[in-house]
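Notes from the pairing session

We agreed to fold both candidates in a single pass and log them together. This is the raw record for the first candidate, unedited. Please don't reformat it; downstream parsing expects exactly this layout.

Candidate A
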Amino acid sequence: MHDDLIARARTWLAEDPDPDTRDELAGLLDAGDVTELTARFSGTLQFGTAGLRGELGAGPMRMNRAVVIRAAAGLAAYLKKHGSPDGVVVIGYDARHKSEDFARDTAAVMTGAGLKAAVLPRPLPTPVLAYAIRHLGAVAGVEVTASHNPPRDNGYKVYLGDGSQIVPPADAEIAAEIQAITSLNDVPRPDTGWETLDDSVLDAYLARTDAVLAEHSPRTARTVYTAMHGVGKDTLLAAFARAGFPTPDLVAEQADPDPDFPTVAFPNPEEPGAMDLAFAKARETDPDLIIANDPDADRCAVAVKEKDNTWRMLRGDEVGALLAAHLVNRGAQGTFAESIVSSSLLGRIAEKAGLPHEETLTGFKWIARVEGLRYGYEEALGYCVDPEGVRDKDGITAALLITELASELKEENRTLPDLLDDLAVTHGLHATDQLSVRVEDLSIIATAMERLREHPPTELAGLPVTEAEDLTRGTDRLPPTDGLRYTLTGARVIVRPSGTEPKLKCYLEVVVPVAAHADLPAARARATDLLTAIKRDLSAAAGI
C-alpha cells in the first residue's frame, strides 16, 4: 500500500505542469510524509453541482493546475457530446491565489478541444461572468473562485449556456468525462488561440444595472462600502456613479484585492468580526447604511444603525424581505422564489401582493431556473434582482436596489428597520437564526445526520414537531437532497450538510404574531428565547 501511494504520487509529479506544486509534492516525497501524501492521494476532488472547491496544493485531493486542466477537459468533452463542438466558453476569475493560472489553463484546454475561449480582461465579480455568458451567446461559462472560503481555498464554478449554474444530471456527466481522462499528456493545451476580452462586456453589464432602479427614484442614501479584500470595489463604484448615488466611503483596509485576506479570519460578511472595520468606518462617517460584498461580489451584506446608535448586520432573510417589499411596491410582476432554508416571510409578502411564490432546493442553480422568475433570494446573502440580466445571485445590483430603497425611506424620514417593523406587524415577526458547526472530521456531520434520522426529535423548545421529513426521499415539489425538515407549531427547522464548506448547517425560523408596533419588543424577546431554546435542543438531539 505504501509503495502504491509513492508510485501514484510520482506519476502525478511527472505530469504536474506547475513548478510550485511540483516542488511541494517533491518535498513531501523526499520527507517520506506518508500522512500528508495519503491525505493528498486518498481519492480525487469530486466535481458536483458546486463545481470544484477545495484547499490549494499538490495532488488529486487539492485544487491545482492539474486538477483544473482535467476539469476543463471534462467540461469540453461534455459540451462537444451535447452539440456544441465549436461554441464560445467565457471564463472569469477572482483575485485568489492561482485564479488567473486556472483561468488561463481552462482557456488553453477549450482552445485545444476546438472550442472558442474568451477570458474576461482581469479579476471581476462573478455576476459579470454570469451576465457575459448570455450576452456573448456562449455555450458555457467558468468562474474561478472560492467565493467567501478561507484564503487557502480556490474553486471552479461551471455555468451552461442559459447563464445558470449546472444541476443534475450535467454535473455527473461532466464528472464522468473528467474521470475518463487518464493522462494530462492526452489533453491538448496550446499556448495561444483564445481571446482576452476588452471592457465592452463589463460596460454592457454596467449599462444593464441601470434597469434595476426606477427611472426617477431618489438616490440620496449615503453608504460605507467594503469589498472584503475581493474584486467588487471598481465595479460597484462604477455602478453607483452611473446611478447617481453619493460615492460610497470605502473601508480602505479591505478595498483592494488581497488573496491573503489579512484583516479577516474568514472573508465572509456573516462571520464574526468580518464587519468590524466597516462598523468603525460607519461610526466615523455616519452613513445611512453599510454595504459589503463577499470576495467575488455575488453576495451583498447590509448593516443598519439602530435607534441606540449601534450598527447591526441585517440577516439575509431581512434583506430578502426588504428587497421583495420594495419590488412589490414598485409593481413588480412575476414569480418570487427562494430556497427552502430561507424565511417563509417571502411567501407571505408574495401572497398578499397576489404574486406566485416558489421554494427550491438550496442554491441559485435551482432558484435561477424557476419559471417566470422576477426575484429570488436565499438567506446566505444572495439576491437575484434582475434575472433577465444575471441568472444568479448578484451583489452589485442587490446593493443598488437596497440603496434605492434606503433613499426612498430617507425621503420619508424613515429607515430600513422601520420597514422591517411594518412587515412584522403586517405578516407576523419572522425571526431566523442558524446553528452552524464547522468540523475538521467530515464523519461528525454524517454521524449527526444519521442520529437525527434514527431518533428524530418530537419537540424542540417545548414546541411539538408536527411533521418530520427526510428530504433524501424528495417531496411532491422538491427533488431529493441530503436534508431534514421539521415543522413545528409556529416554527421550522432544516438541517443539512453545507455543499461548499465542512459545516453542518441548521436553519431555524420562528413566527410570532404581532398585533401592533407596540407589541414588537415583547415579540422579539419571545422569538429570541424560542430560537435559543431550539438551538440548545437541536444541538443535543444531533449530538453536536
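Candidate B (folded immediately after A)
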Amino acid sequence: MLSVGNRSALVLALLLAGALIAYLLPAPWRRTRRLLSGGVLVLAGWAALSIAAITTNGPIVTTFGQAVSGVPLTLRADQTGLALVLIALVATFFALGAADRRPGEEAALLVTAAGAALAALAGNAVMLFAGAEIASLGGLLLATAARERVSRGAAVAFTIQHVFALGLLVAAVQLIVTTGTSDPYAVPSGAVGLAVALPWGLAGAGRLLAAGWWPGAAGGRSTRSWLAIGAVPCGAAVLLRLGAATGGAFDPGLTVVLATLGTAAALWGAVAAWRWKHESRRAGRALLTASAGTLVAIAGLPGGSGGFAAGVVALELALLAAPAWSRPTLPSRGGRALAATALAAAGGLPIGFGTTAIVLELGAVASLGRPYAPLLLALGMAAVVAAGGGVVAARQAIGLAALPSRQAAAAPTPSGDGEVSPLRESPPGGEGAAPPGLLRRAVLPRPDAAVALAVGAAAALLPGVVGAVLLGPLVGSAAPVAIDAATLHGPGGPWPGGYLSLALLVVLLGVVSAGLALGLPFPHPAHGERGPRPRPAWIAVVGARRALGPPALGLGRGLARLDAWMVTQPGLVFTVVVALAALIGFHYL
C-alpha cells in the first residue's frame, strides 16, 4: 500500500501519466481518451481526498531530494493545498465533459490540472513557480490543440503571465539568499519585506485578473478552461502562501498596491458590463473582471482571508457557468434563459454564491474601521454597478432573436484559442466543415453550465455548507464561522445569505402570481434589440502606436547609420572630433 507521504506525489503522477497516454492515443479514439481522462481525474481526486482525511491534525510534508542546493523538491499536503487541488480537478472534469472538445485537448487539460496541483501542494516558492509554469504550459497546449500555431494575442498574454511568474522566482531567490529557505512556513518573521512581497503578490494578482484581460477570456474553450483550471487555483495558491509567509501581516506598501490595482479593475469591469450589455461575451468578461478585481483588492488586507476564500469560490463558479453566455449566438429559448441566468449570477445577484462572497469581502473591509472607508466606498460602488450591469446584460440576452437555421449554421463560433472564426458552409468532410454535432450543440443549452449554475444556487441557499466544506479548508481559522447550513458569520457581522435567497424567490413568486391573477402583461425586452458596437479600449493604444511608428522607424534608421559608421572607425573624422572634444574638455581652448 502506498505510504501517506507519497500520496501527494501520486496525484501529480496520475495526472501527468494520464496526459502522456491520452496524447499517444490515436486521434479517432475520442471516447477512449475521454474515458481515460475521466478515470484519471477520479483516481487523482480519490488520492487527494484520502490525504485530506489525514491532514486534519497537521500537514504532511514530503521531500524528494534537491534540484539544486537550497531548493528541495518538497510537497506540502495541507488543507489549503488539497482544497485547491479538488477545485482544479472539478473544473477539469467540467471542461472534459464539453461536447465540442477537440482531439488532443484532453492531454492539455490534464497537464494544466497537474500544474495547478503542483502549485497547490508546493512546499516552497520555487516549487510554486514550477507549478504555475506547468499550468501555463498546459494553457499553451490547449491553445495549439485545434490550431497550427498560437495567435499573436495569446502569445503576448502568455509572455506577460510568464513575466509575472518570474517575479515569484525572483522573490524565492531573495528568500533563499537571505534566510536559506523559501518555505513560506519556515521563513523567519519579518523576512518577507516589500522587495520580496511585491513581485510575489503581483504574480498571484496577475493570475486572478487574467479572467478580464486574457484574449478571448471565457469566450473560447481553451482560454475558458485554462482560466478555471490553471489561473484561478494557481493565483489563489500564490497569494495564500504569501499570507502564510508573512503571518497574515502584509507589507503596507503591498496592501496599497493590491488594493489600488484590484479596485481599478473592479470599477472598470462594472462600468464595462453596462457599456457592453448588448454583447453577452464582453459583458460576462467584464463581470468576471469586477469579481476578480474585488478579490485582488482584499487579498492584502488584515483579516481579509475569509472574504478572499469566498471570492475564489464565487469566481470559479462564474467561470464554470461561462459556457452559457460565451456563445456568440444563442438562438434557442433555453440557451437564452441559461445565458441570462449565468450573467445575473456573475453580476452578484442572490441567485448565485456571488452575493455571499461580495458581502463577506466588503464586511472584511468594513471591519477595519474608518481609514478604509474610501476603499469600502469604491468596492461597494463597483459591486452595485456590476449587479446592475448583470441585470441589464441578462435582459439583453433574453431578448436575443432566434436565428433561422441557415443563419445559425453560418454564425461565428469561438475557435480553439478564444478567437471568433466563421463556420463556412462546405460539403461534409470538406475543408472548413464543422465537427459532427457542433452546430447542433451551438443552439442547445450547455449542460455543464446548467450544472454549475445549479451548484451556485445551492451554495447561495446553503452558504454555511460551503463555509464548512471549502472556506474552512482554504484559510483555516480565518474562515467565516458557519452557524448553520444557511448562515455565515464573517468579520462584518452575521450574514444570512441563504435566507435572503429564499426571500427573493418568495418575492418573485408572489409578484408573478399577483400579475397572473390580475391579468397584467409582464415587460420583456424587444427581440433583436442591439445597440452600436462599442469601441474597444485597445483602439487608443493602436492609434498611439501608429502615431509613434514613423518617428521610431526614423530613429532606428539613424541608429543603424551611426552603427555602420562606428564600425569603420577610427578614421580621420573620428580623430578630429575626439581631439576637439578633448581640447574643449580639458580647457585647452
